[in-house]
Amino acid sequence: MKHIQNIDYAMREFDAITREGEELVATHCAFCGMQCGMNIRFKPDTKEVLGVEPRYDFPMNGGRLCPKGVSAYRQVEHEERLLYPMIRRNGKLERATWDEALDLVASKMREIQLQHGKDAFGIYSGSSMTNEKCYVMGKFARIGLGTKNIDYNGRYCMAAAATGFKQSLGMDRGSTNPWSDIKFADVLLIAGSNTAECHPLSMPYVWGARDRGAKLIVVDPRETKTALVADLHLDLRPGTDIALVNGIIHVMIRDNLVDHAFIEAHTNGYEALKETVAEFTPYHAEMITGVDQRKIEQAAHMFGKAREGMVMFARGIEQHATGSDNVSNYVNLSLLTGKIGRKGSGVATFTGQGNGQGGREHGQKADQLPGYRVITDPAARAHVAKVWGVDESEIPGPGISAYEMLKSLGQDIKGLLLICSNPLVSAPSIGDIEERMRSLDFFVCIDMFLSESAELADVVLPSTVWVEDNGTTTNIEGRVIRIKGIDRTPGESKRDWEIIGEIAKRLGRGQYFDYGSPEDIFNELREASRGGVADYYGITYDKIDRMDGVFWPCPSLEHEGTPRLFEDLKFKFPDGKAKLHGFTHTGPNEKVDKDYPFILTTGRVVYHYLSGNQTRRIEALRKLCPDPYIEIHPNTAAQLHIKNGEFLKISSRRGYITVPAKITKIIRPDSLFVPYHWGKQLGINRLTNPALDPKSKIPEFKVCAVQIEKAGEEDIKHAQSALY
Amino acid sequence: MPKVLYIDFERCIGCRACVIGCEECSGHDHLSRMFVDELTPGETVATSPTPCMHCYTPLCAESCPVQAIQVMDGVVLSASHEKCIGCKNCTYACPFGIPRVDEAKKLMYKCDMCYDRTSKGRPPMCVSVCPTDTIQYVDEEVVKLKNSKPVQYQWQFGATEIETRTVIGLPDLAGHKYGYYDAEESDPYVGQT
Fold it and tell me: Which residues form the 4Fe-4S ferredoxin-type domain (chain B) (predicted)?
């Protein structure tokens, strides 16, 4: 029997097929925050991984998978797996023993910290790891190394949503509602999310709503597949979300489509917001956004008049220098119309990374301790210090954010431990960042493949892939689920938490990291998070199995979790009221001019995950999207006499790359799009703008000013040498 | 009641999970038998999957000189390993261009509706993985007679009419319920209330 929390989901009534001589392990996908359920087929004797079998009974996806999910297992037996530790000798990475490598790492850590202070060694972590590993990284930084400088790649991903939710609702859980609620909305407003490509398994819910007659409004500069099937596509100029939403709010207030009783009882700040949007008439909004004012009117009516509605968004609105405020302005739409805290009404961000939710809750963020606690809060410090068995004074204060850390490499930060991330693809302005990484005194990287970043390391430590370890992740909805692994460690590879334990031992801090299993770590995490915002105390491995996942907060062993937040309309501020914030349009940090006349925006394709370190190696995915390209509108292409497939050199103030043109009407004539999954001379992040949102420190990946020209022979040759 | 494939291509997101998923069925030797085509390249991102249409009178089987292509329970199977000579007659005969030939093995392969799965009461792999339920495995009579949107399963190729078990859902051009809604051509104006 399915638990009652799961009855409205997309599961199907079939059993998986177990083939003769094989076993299945019921786990979840390695990619994206959907964390779709899947079975991995393996040989019980040799532990060889053979393939994938649908997990029809898992609520979220009912066995359905995107192409990444189908082929995720193909990284396991991959020939490019790192199988032994490597140390750089005479400029080359050479095979070493674990003892040699770990001793070197520990001695360099000691040496650098002794010479330059504790904070001179930084940790750059990732959010595609289990909660257990993310927790261990935060703990290792604070009381293993004793450095304040730890941050993680979620800073590029979820930071603006988190900050925006906190400033509007008082707390951040990526979705206020369980995903099955989407089906019960009468209107869906999806902004800056190419849901169809980036979260394909959300589509059964979007279609579920559509099947019930829901209207779909999509805000996106491109006519993505999600936009193509929308009732209303608001094709805004990149970087103008504030003005667009102000226009919609203006119409909703003008036409009395707001819920005054809700605003009065459950929010603060309405009058100031009203004043802010007064000047944003539909005409004014059209002038800034390029969206036909009639569509702005229609969006306001479509959303305002609906009974239930959800506002959902992703990196398209978040990766801006005003990212947190963009988020809060979209949340305003829900608050103004009282669409929150009910089945079919709420707000959500589409979590990009596999554990983008859990990874930002348990202390690997620069300013945070487990349970979503704030590192400067004395009570939080005291609680966590007690769980860790240390004195409160041993826990350092807040460190600096991911991009700021990369900028400090070689200066304040002399040594770096990189785990579960590939910033030389995923950071903005990677030409500059590469130089910084090369200037480090010491750089150790833990990974299962030799990423573009790992190639620069002094020591590379081989870890396992996701299905070779146990643990939990927290999905897009805030549902904590179990990743179940097969007991195998190819070659000499070790699990991340075991590697960290080994390093801690060599630093004389082994007693704090002496875990027997991921479940040991989880049980400590439960205590550490107890009483915090993200309270996992009542979640156990058994309960997760029994309920197909448990939604946090879950404060006691009897508690069955919290699928839907704010049902009591008590927001997490002292007076229980949500905050309406008004924002005025400032536009992107970098504006187009005569030298750089086009807007560049970047994003993902369905075949690749983040920096592509895994998916670019999987042949089936690589064949479907081997190389980056630049989407350019036919009118723009005609003006510049560019033919389809012709190589273009695209440059910003920070760098350039050369890629083939893909002429398509799905992009605005004033904008260009390049997917970001590649590095080196194909990395579009050579061009992107590292301007940070002052509140969340997320970089402005989504807008920068560029110019394009036909590529010369040298540039084409250079690009071609890297094309697949 | 026999089950057939139903393609509601307005839901297709072009992700090709079906193409890769097809490789995962036990009878498929890791060779995909699925196709996904762009419908209006350069104009929109609209796509559609094409599995075997499973004709009532399969021209592939009729054209096979060695009778390697069998029909079982209405499913046109892949060519028999023993009999197939890799001549490609079937590829040329098929009006939908479905059968492919493995040049190395000199062996035709095509969609067999995952006979290994459907014979055990499970949906084919493409249906199992499709994120959007674009490809469905449904009762033939229900989908052909009582579907909520118009369907097509009879096809005219010159003078020849072909009836297929696979059913294609046609876009709802009147209501624009899903997809292919051209906001440019519509008048979205909503007056003040």
Answer: 3-22, 43-74, 75-104
Model pTM?
Answer: 0.96
**Is A444 in contact with A459 (CB distance < 8 Å)?**
yes
Best interface-test mutation with B: which of A42, A198, A207 has the largest number of B CBs within 10 A?
A207
Q: Check residue A229 and give its pLDDT.
A: 86
Say yes or no: A256 contacts chain B, CB-CB below 8 A.
Answer: yes
- Chain A residues whose beta carbon lies within 8 Å of the beta carbon of residue B122: 14-15, 17
Q: Which residue has the tokens 């370890």?
A: A469
Residue A334 to residue A185: CA distance in whole angstroms: 12
Q: Is residue A531 classed exposed, middle or buried when 0-12, 13-18 and 19+ CB atoms within 10 A define those classes? A: middle
Taking the Cβ of residue A56 and every Cβ of chain B, the question of whether any pair is shorter than 8 Å is answered with yes
Contacts of A63 in chain B (CB under 8 A): 128-129
CA-nearest residue of chain A to B120? A17
Coil, strand, or helix at residue A163?
Answer: helix
> Considering only residues 58 to 77 of chain A, which have any Cβ-Cβ distance to chain B shorter than 8 Å?
61, 63-67, 69-71
CA distance B44 to B40: 6
Quick check: B192 pLDDT over 60?
Answer: no
Q: How confident is the model at residue B149 (pLDDT cuts 50, 70, 90)?
A: confident
Q: In one letter, which amino acid is A354? A: G
Share of chain B above pLDDT 70, in %: 88
Contact A292 B188 (CB under 8 A): yes
d(CA A191, CA A135): 31
Residues 186-245 of A with CB under 8 A from B: 196-197, 200-201, 203-204, 207, 210, 223-225, 228-233
The CATH number for B35's domain is 3.30.70.20
pLDDT of residue B65: 96
Contacts of B140 (CB under 8 A, 6+ apart): B1, B2, B3, B4, B165, B167
- What local confidence, expressed as pLDDT, does residue B174 receive? 66
Domain contains B7: yes
Domain containing B104: what range? 3-174
Three-state DSSP at A711 gives coil
Q: Is the pLDDT of residue B187 over 60?
A: no
Q: What is the mean pLDDT of residues B128-138?
A: 96
- Structural domains in chain B (count): 1
Average pLDDT over residues B11-21: 96
Domains of chain A: 2-75 (3.30.200.210), 108-156+355-515 (3.40.50.740), 159-349 (3.40.228.10), 598-722 (2.40.40.20)
- Does B112 reside within a domain? yes
Chain A partners of B114 at a C-beta cutoff of 8 Å? none
What was the pLDDT predicted at B184?
Answer: 42
Radius of gyration of chain A from its Cα atoms, rounded to whole angstroms: 24
**CA separation for the pair A466, A76 (Å, rounded):** 9
Nearest-neighbour CA in chain B from A658: distance (Å): 21
Opening angle at CA A453, ends A447 and A457, nearest 5: 80
Closest residue of B to A215, CA-based? B177
ipTM rounded to 2 decimals: 0.95
Residues in chain A with pLDDT values less than 70: 1
Q: Which residues of A touch B179 (CB under 8 A)?
A: 228-229
